[in-house]
Amino acid sequence: MRANPYRGLPDFQFWSRGVTWQAPGHLDPMIEDHWIKPHERIATLGSCFAQHLARNMAGLGLNYYVAENAPPGMTSDEARKKNYGVFSARYGNVYTVRQAVQLFQRAFGMFAPCDDVWSVADGGFVDAFRPNIEPAPLEDEATVRRAAQSHLACVRQMFLEANWIVFTLGLTEGWRSLKDGAVYPVAPGVAGGRFDPCSYGFANFSSRMVQEDLATFVDLVESVNPTCRLILTVSPVPLIATYEHQHVLTATTYSKSVLRVAAEEIARERKNVVYFPSYEIITAPGVAGTYYADDLREVKSSGVRHVMRVFNKHFVEPDPQSLHATPVSSVSASRFAQALSSPSNDENSVICDENIIEASVNSIAR
Amino acid sequence: MGIKIGVLGNCDTGAITTSLRQLVLEASVTPLALKGAGLSDYLDANLPDFDLIFVNSSTYVADRGRDVDPRVIVYPQITFRPFHPDCFYVWLSNNSLIENYNSAICVGCFVRGLSVEQTVSCFNKEVYDYLGYFSRWDDGVKKLKHDFEHYNVDFTKFFLRAKRSGVFMHSINHPTKDAFTALSALLAMKIGASEDALDKPVFFPDPLANFAWPVYPEIGEIFSAPGAYVWLYAGKYLGLHDFISAEFDRYKSKGLTREGIRFADACFQDKLDALLGVPR
Predict the structure, then answer these.
(1) Residue A212 pLDDT grade (very low, low, confident, very high; cuts 50, 70, 90)
(2) Cβ contacts (< 8 Å) between B244 and chain A: which residues?
(3) Domain ranges of chain B
(4) Alpha helices (H) along chain B
(5) According to CATH, what is the number of the domain B4-75+175-210?
(6) Mean pLDDT to the nearest integer, B108-128
(7) Chain A neighbours among B 139-168 (CB < 8 Å)?
């Protein structure tokens, strides 16, 4: 019998060995491997930070699944402007778990929100659930709804065919319709629609509500795709603004804590759910905030790359043909003539619906 | 009148002296230099003028045979390779050094007859991986810990403070200002300063920043640190290609050959042979 229950526990269970003495850039809070096979389709959804993960999936040799592709003939520039490929389907940012539940329900005809199209002040209409997905508003409500139907068919396909879904949990705060509870990515009046306190209300989902929503989401995915596995992660990007009468920092701590607890609880309960610690890697004390940009909110590419190194280590099976396994005699200098590529300037840019909250407020102030 | 302290280091003398002057205000701190004399003779001649002399271990090791006076406090030379694993000292067969630092890949390619362009192509992740450049951390920490413990300076306090500042070395043996500040605070604590010394602001220009070796981007990546292929070389900043060209010219003038050079780690030549081929 061990006299001390902590004796013999692995290094990662001790702060000194797991954190304090880790080399810079080497913190790895993930303790198990979950290999994603190269042919398996991996889909992404979630907050702005999810785009970083999405962008890097293919680079890791994974089969990043895009169910909603640009139509044939569309230029890559136009496709980018219309947000094809940013996520596995063109749903834009899915910040709250309730949004994800409703996205699924809308895709499978389980929920038809009554307030789904918003008019824009300068003319035209947008999809209330993805108001920034098009570069410009569409001409009428019917066009928006037709586009939504086509999009939701792709969402359906994604939920049916993905082998893995990476869901980045972003926020607990959101805005919802008081008529049917539909939750929107941004408040009415920010990117379309008009704020009417009789029609819309603010919601800051509680820990219990988020846990229930997450369980519902996992159940829904499992009901149509029983072998699909979910990777949950919490975005380390702080709130751009809170509607609570609270400092934005304490509101951020609340929001991230609730999401983190919900992710932990469901990962403990369900065999098909894995928690991936993006949040911990970016916010770790050893990093001392250096993974945040100067606005102390956006995550720098060095932080994203650390996250992806850990993801790569635990989800992508090592290639047995790596150099270490190559007989030394067969290695020649010419083998190494690979180009030294530097990251492109827009490597770190993400499309973030949330950012327009501040922009819209600033435009009013002017 | 305060105590009289001498600092007998090497390239760190200025940094340690300046730091101690600020950390131990009541002391008079004087930088010292051996100037070719042996340590024993030097100490015999100078100790009477001081209450204590801090001596860099590299100097001390050179004259280890002598029983050192208790007024002499030896401190460890900070040597740490993990951020700059390609930066080497290389010796000629007559035991003289090829002056200053060398890129092992660069000198290895030169003596094996590779062209500048071929050498440029060898600066990449796969080669670094093969040469073990990505796995130097544990050995580096172990060696530094050994050196600190050997000279009874608190390694944990030094290293954790230095590590928090990021890449705390400009090269394999040139620490940054942050590392010097931490070491100086620990030396000040040895002569009675409180632990607050570690948190005191110390002002001096980073003394060895101009004697730096770049952190290669691929190496920096694993430490989440920025990297660049930029060398300060004879007063000019050179990129990878120009650096290699300049080094090849230098090596040509010295007539370097595979058999005429050696690295501190004898096995390293075998690794380079296996990677780059043995010159005929």
Answers:
(1) very high
(2) none
(3) 4-75+175-210, 87-134+212-276
(4) 13-23, 39-46, 57-61, 104-111, 116-121, 125-130, 137-150, 155-164, 177-190, 217-222, 240-254, 267-276
(5) 3.40.50
(6) 95
(7) 141, 160, 163-164, 166-167
